[in-house]
Specification:
about 55% helix, about 140 residues, elongated, 2 strands, single chain, two-stranded antiparallel ribbon, mainly alpha
Amino acid sequence: MFKNKSLTEQSKRLEARLNAIPKEVVAALRPALVKGAEEMAANMRALVPVDEGDLKESITVTAPGETTPAYAEGGGRRTAGPNQALVTVGNEDVRHGHLQEFGTVKQEAQPFMRPGARLAKPRAQRRISRAIGQAIKKAAEGNA
């Protein structure tokens, strides 16, 4: 199918296929995305080491189309795409999540982001797959 096609040609074909997805399917996917992200954030909150609680409180979920808090990811704001839900750690007052996660020369790593994501990922993927399947089935019934 994609044999001997350049990466650019493959990307164009994929983009055309993704653009052909009905808007109803993307809209039906939103609740599954947000719920999966909320579960991931809850796992992270359960695993984060608590000293003052500021790091735990900075864990937020950004729904599709919304913008992350300042300084949460990459030092700036990011708007989630229509088929994305983002879980971020940090805000303008709390900027040490990566130090807890990976450690420093003077502090042992206390991972909470990656383990929290790993725990929630399989369930979120199943929920998203179900939502996509149901939305496609409903869209196909409407077009029949």
